[in-house]
Specification:
This is Histidine phosphatase family protein. By secondary structure, the chain is of the alpha/beta class. 27% of the residues lie in helices and 17% in strands. The protein contains five helices and six strands, in the order βαβαβααβαββ. The protein has helices spanning 33-46, 60-72, 105-108, 123-140, 152-162; strands spanning 4-11, 51-56, 77-79, 145-150, 181-187, 190-197. It has a six-stranded mixed beta sheet, with helices on both faces. A hairpin with a 2-residue loop joins strand 5 and strand 6. Helix 4 (123-140) packs across helix 5.
Amino acid sequence: MSDITVVHLVRHGEVANPDGILYGRLAGYHLSDLGRRMADRVAEHLATRDVTHVVASPLERAQETATPIAKAHGLDLATDARLIEADNVFQGKTFGVGDGALKRPENWKHLVNPFKPSWGEPYVDQVVRMMGALDAAKDAARGHEAVLVSHQLPIWIVRSYVERRRLWHDPRRRQCTLASLTTFTYQGDKIVSVGYSEPARDLVPPHLLAGAKPVKGKDKAFGA
């Protein structure tokens, strides 16, 4: 058996969310038609890879993104709660660039510490659970490849940890576009490289690409 194992962390596709809600861990948010096309594109991209294990966050958008990937390899889809979206006190509300949320006094108490952060699940806690999910997938697919479908913030945080960057950051600078792959290569039990690719880039609305300039009314923090 090879001592090289590859684990792909996939961000789910676009979600149907016409009201611009920060949906976080709320149930009932499914992929849009475009999101399903993104999921199919990722499945096609990975179809020839040596994938032996597919896992998803319990949230619908992640499950729906992972389903065609598992089907393409004839695998059952597993669920790991450690891959879930980060908790956030603004869940269920609109909260984004240009909507005045930062000016509302009732929100100020949640914005006092961007380093933890004070408005949601601590970054350190996200690292712990995501590293646990990565290690479990590496063990399950040892010598082959695994696919884990998760959400933007936890994917970016665990990548930042592995690449030894600070965990607090500007959310607009995350390199973790919809339906993107953040790929960890292990030699034995050690991560030796991290890669990034966007097989559905041409399907992603331009204002949602990494580093895009915020667009008022289109850049709400929907959850990821």
